[in-house]
Write a structure and sequence with these properties.
4 copies of one chain form a homotetramer.
Chain A (H helix, E strand, L loop, with lengths): L1 E4 L5 H13 L3 E6 L4 E6 L2 H5 L9 E5 L19 E3 L2 E3 L5 E5 L6 H14 L3 E3 L17 H14 L3 E5 L5 H7 L2 E4 L7 H7 L6 E4 L6 H13 L5 E5 L17 H8 L4 E3 L1 H5 L5 H11 L3 E5 L17 H17 L10
Parallel strand pairs in A: 7-8, 7-14, 8-9, 9-10, 10-11, 11-12, 12-13
Antiparallel strand pairs in A: 1-3, 1-4, 2-3, 5-6
Amino acid sequence: MIIVMQTGVQEKEIQQVVTRLEEVGLGVHLSKGEFRTIIGAIGDEKIVRAMGLEALSFVEKVLPITQPFKLVSREFQDENSVFTVGDCTIGGDQVVLMAGPCAVESEEQLLEAAVGVKAAGAQILRGGAFKPRTSPYAFGGLEEEGLKMLARVREKTGMPIVTEVMDQHTVGLVSEYADIVQVGTRNMQNFYMLRELGKLNKPILLKRGLSATIEEWLMAAEYIMSGGNHQVILCERGIRTFETYTRNTLDLSAVPVVKHLTHLPIIVDPSHGTGSWRWVPAMSRAAVAAGADGVMIEVHPHPEKALCDGAQSLTIEKFTNVCHQLEQVAAVFGKHIKKVTV
Amino acid sequence: MIIVMQTGVQEKEIQQVVTRLEEVGLGVHLSKGEFRTIIGAIGDEKIVRAMGLEALSFVEKVLPITQPFKLVSREFQDENSVFTVGDCTIGGDQVVLMAGPCAVESEEQLLEAAVGVKAAGAQILRGGAFKPRTSPYAFGGLEEEGLKMLARVREKTGMPIVTEVMDQHTVGLVSEYADIVQVGTRNMQNFYMLRELGKLNKPILLKRGLSATIEEWLMAAEYIMSGGNHQVILCERGIRTFETYTRNTLDLSAVPVVKHLTHLPIIVDPSHGTGSWRWVPAMSRAAVAAGADGVMIEVHPHPEKALCDGAQSLTIEKFTNVCHQLEQVAAVFGKHIKKVTV
Amino acid sequence: MIIVMQTGVQEKEIQQVVTRLEEVGLGVHLSKGEFRTIIGAIGDEKIVRAMGLEALSFVEKVLPITQPFKLVSREFQDENSVFTVGDCTIGGDQVVLMAGPCAVESEEQLLEAAVGVKAAGAQILRGGAFKPRTSPYAFGGLEEEGLKMLARVREKTGMPIVTEVMDQHTVGLVSEYADIVQVGTRNMQNFYMLRELGKLNKPILLKRGLSATIEEWLMAAEYIMSGGNHQVILCERGIRTFETYTRNTLDLSAVPVVKHLTHLPIIVDPSHGTGSWRWVPAMSRAAVAAGADGVMIEVHPHPEKALCDGAQSLTIEKFTNVCHQLEQVAAVFGKHIKKVTV
Amino acid sequence: MIIVMQTGVQEKEIQQVVTRLEEVGLGVHLSKGEFRTIIGAIGDEKIVRAMGLEALSFVEKVLPITQPFKLVSREFQDENSVFTVGDCTIGGDQVVLMAGPCAVESEEQLLEAAVGVKAAGAQILRGGAFKPRTSPYAFGGLEEEGLKMLARVREKTGMPIVTEVMDQHTVGLVSEYADIVQVGTRNMQNFYMLRELGKLNKPILLKRGLSATIEEWLMAAEYIMSGGNHQVILCERGIRTFETYTRNTLDLSAVPVVKHLTHLPIIVDPSHGTGSWRWVPAMSRAAVAAGADGVMIEVHPHPEKALCDGAQSLTIEKFTNVCHQLEQVAAVFGKHIKKVTV
């Protein structure tokens, strides 16, 4: 940590900071430049972060040197984490396709979607039973009934399922059914829920918060990992900006940045990331070309009748075309999309 | 709702939309302009929102005409809502000052803060017992023990307390102690918790989400109100932008906009809104001048020893100065700060 | 244009709007719904935009139906525009690589860069002679001397050059030397300069403004085209968001959106878009996979000695690797990178 | 400057950085912590900024310690700058009101506006002769004819005028007529124009760029001052965010931040800052309460007939009310609005 003092700081003020740092066992490195006195605090930055030195009027700013995350970082583990779900692996040389409807509406709808996306090349079925909705008057999901439908469709198709949990007290319920438990964008900083997920022994798909920095996102992953569950899959799904042609701005640079900083797999959700089926094929291809370990795409057999997010859902036909393209893009990078043959 | 069709749309495609609208009981108003065919859907917009018409390739966009919120709007209730908390009223001709430490650290610290802010002019004591923290390694609050300290300090000082709830399952616990239950920025869209708060008969202080639009914020209030609890106090606390000199960008224009759209009171939190004690006095004055019904300010007897957010906390002395200024600004608008005399 | 009236609007207020619309020759379509009266104005939306109807207190909002741009739109021209520069074409089935140093520093540096990027596969040489710099104390470019170096290196290597113009009064000078005239992000709305560029008969590379919406960007292109020069190449180069790991957030969704709305070619600049050489290879691949007609990459023979933006420049070796990957990604979409063989 | 090295950096890589710093005459302070080696560079930070050390793969990041601006900073000049325009002073104990139409449309319109705003309490007349417009089809201003009208109305009313310049080559022309030369938001980084303005001996009103950080804005002021003209008035006018209820988000925290960092006066433009006349009164009051040295407000005798930005213009009557309120708010802070009595 570097503590930058105000210009005109007095000797006793410098000493006050030095003494506080030494009291908590940190090494101190004092440097008086032409314009500024700066104090380097050597040791655990967590201690300095908690000290609130910016509250002192003669301290101008406190600059961190190291990252605030540990377990997620490449410094903790250099080689890529690879997790196994059903027949496929995430984080290695496969590109994983997760697809399915935004919300589970009925078993028929879900099965039709599952059969369609599986034939097209998807390995994992997505579908929401608990739906966070901006309006209290909108369809909120079938809840446990939806989870049961997911389980029955898994049995019929052999596809593992990924579905969202919205609350720490339903973590137990959702994880009974789900193969991958999804944390939605609005819950990325639901810290009690993250702690609960840290006790599971199952992959967690952690969506980036709508306006979360990459650092905050990785700190959310750190919450889960610090609880003991190291199976975290990150999912970029668009951030909020001023642009309105797309619902969000899909931040694909997050892919190489995350790959550089962490050992965790990262997938991309171009459906929520753009908000319209029109932009999904292009952004799916771009995600894979940027190095993502997979994509998660909303597919509905009849998007114009969907109870939720029909505007951003692909038809099964359009999704099939996307799969063909992704296969070829993956091949450029020595990756492949595993054929499911049950 | 206005449905704008793509250029070159065919007659049968127009008919398909018209038929679907009529099937759900909506009136239809067709208008063929030089460049575009547009279809007006007359009736409840909630129905159209749920139809997913954008999923049709020949629909260009769907434009809402009315606001998606009802109960919070001035159309539902024209006169200002005024809520009573302890001796004071919020939403009328008083400017209410809520002050206290970010986190409850100990009964001594809390009492010292309470006595200080009360003497300076604050009516309501703030203090967090449950603290959402970006890092799993940071101080997370004293939880129920903290709530008890708040209750004891209320008894000693007569100040009503506002404190945060982080989870629908602790709504009961927190509301036992709190006079105003606070929803933090990260939980503004924790919809299950909002529904639970809708069952209370107590004012809810609803902070704006870090990147929530005003519309989404009002929809969160609508959740609470649609559950039966009409006592919602909105709290602007800064939005996320590219500027880094301040931690967030305090969006004071939200004050007149909210006053125009809704009948609910709105207060401003300049401490989180700016992230540094340096900018709090100026922005407190600006908030009151913009028409806010109150401000919520972090005050710590010893900010440089705070376990949380010391950098943005005022000392009691600085807060006292701010109170004097706010009194004068309030007077300009025919408002006043109620003297507490217990 | 749809004019939405306030609730409780009076008949004479509605008439006032209707009369004003009819006075300027527009058709009027009145619709009184349960909650709102709306007035459709039929005819040229430019006229309504200029009327300032929002200034009337009984008008709630004015919603545009059509796009404000004409010449750039697919409605004006459906097939893709393809421009020829030197040996290659932009906007068709080639992926064009523009590469070179941020700033022209010396003829030696420029020639070394040009020879290197040409061997790697680039068709067009970039290099700035006029450099907009945030600080008045930073290197501002070699100006006309730099243009002459560009011309001499073009002669030696056969590579067409793209270089930036910063001012309408140097449009003449720059266009004497440049094969493509570049408009930088800070000048996207330098309207006098855009008008001047509209008089040229040369391709213009129009970078997106740092916080320009896609609509504003296309309106800037409309400025150039309305002056008579229809050769506009759009260039996405990152927008400003809250994320700080990357200098800007490269908005790749702009590629499919622009392709949908306009007939103009679009290329991507991942160097400015991300601000670090580390993220350039991944984002170049993603750009091509998203459907971009080319990429523009900063390459410096010795980035650590660059006078400008060394941090985001690739070495020639790294650029060569990127070219190999781009070739393969292009092939997936039936595109190719033209081999230059002079 | 602090250079943070990658983990696992080698001794010879550290030496390479140390040697380069020493070669350019900087002092070096080496500190090897448990997790990171950091190198402090002591001396002029401008030199380090220009070195591009981030281009080295073993350098993680380069952190500045001092501000990049000099002449604008309180370190260069501690006491507030106060400039005289006509009868009033800007930056001292007056709150200055600049008001008038967005665009000069005719001498009648301008005179009517001027007489009205002067009677209400404004000291300075605003009005645009050169208008930057997003659309090439919109009214672009009367240009020199407009400047002449401004001069004639100044003669008739005694009010000094502030008007915008859009190009370095018209700086001479505009400054012949204007008492204060305005730089619009789109030209904040038109560096050639800034240099030209640096040669004038007249106050410059420098609007903040739509997405400019405070630091970039102050660097633009530094451009003007480094050319010799120290009379720079900063003007906050809203930044671009995701919120759409207001056209921009007026960043009032910029007022105390700018006052802390610089000695320059700062005024606020709530008309462009919010985009609607509805929010202008509240935000004007808030601006003065936050400590602004003045406000700039668009006033039109007949907003609903304005050729430009009618939606955000106050009528003379509404402006008169605002003036009364601002007078009282100013008085709270020991400031006053100078009565003009010609």
